[in-house]
Amino acid sequence: MSEVLSNLKKDYVYNLMLKGQREDGRAFNEIRKITVEANVIDKAEGSARVQYGNTQVLVGVKFQLGTPFPDSPNVGVIMTSLELNPIASPSFEAGPPRENAIEMARVTDRGIRESGAIDLTKLCITKGEKVWMVFIDVHVLNDEGNILDAASLGAIAALMTATVPAEREGLGEDFMVPVREMPIGISVVNIGGELMVDPGRNEETTCDTKITITSNQDGSICAMQKSGEGALSEEQVLKAVTLACEKAAEVRENHLLKI
Fold first, then answer.
1. CA 76 → CA 39, 151, 186, distances in Å?
2. Residues 216, 115: contact at Cβ < 8 Å?
3. Which domains are present in the chain?
4. Whole-number Cα distances in Å, 42 to 39, 163, 168, 212
5. Rounded CA separation 174/26 (Å)
6. What's this model's pTM, rounded to 2 decimal places?
7. 12-68 tens-digit pLDDT
8. CB-CB neighbours of 236 under 10 Å
9. Alpha helices for the chain (secondary structure H)
């Protein structure tokens, strides 16, 4: 019965696409309403709650002292995790992180890391011996599709509010995380040859290809991830990149610059 219902939903989404429509009435290039709340976790050094429509994630940032990697002795360390809580969706299961959770954590991490969002050299205390380790923890509170974009926005919003607890460790005064870039991830799905941004849950299930593009403030691409068995033409990839950069600029201006 569940498979029958799933196929019916896919047919419904596909037939709407043929009419130029989406389930929630949005245009193909329209993102759901976004809300960003900063400093929502008292015990975290930085935090943010982000909603994309009814998809909701909570991101916390913590710091601890650690040892740098041998090949980068003078930079801090970033560690990103993502938890798919069973209360967020009937499809999520308790237990160790599943493959899709690990993939989303890696994509979120890559966007922060490859964009150079944080000046990690300023998190070095003693070269080769001691640095600050940045832990970004993403908790999915409700899944109505496109967790990845919400996690991307939540991660950079939480970092922008975070304070390094130097005083706690006897290392001088606390200081704000040295954020120098605001990467934003935008996901685009291909359904029947049509590209749609910010897919809802049924659209994610229906599509055969999804591509997530993370861009910087100057429009440069710092990360890209494709999932699904389908292929995209060169024209579709270029269109997706243009669309993602345009939408990232909107999200950045309307939400991050107001934190």
1. 23, 21, 27
2. yes
3. 23-258 (3.30.230.70)
4. 7, 12, 16, 31
5. 44
6. 0.93
7. 999 999 999 999 999 999 999 999 999 999 999 999 999 999 999 999 999 999 999
8. 17
9. 2-18, 99-115, 147-160, 201-206, 234-254
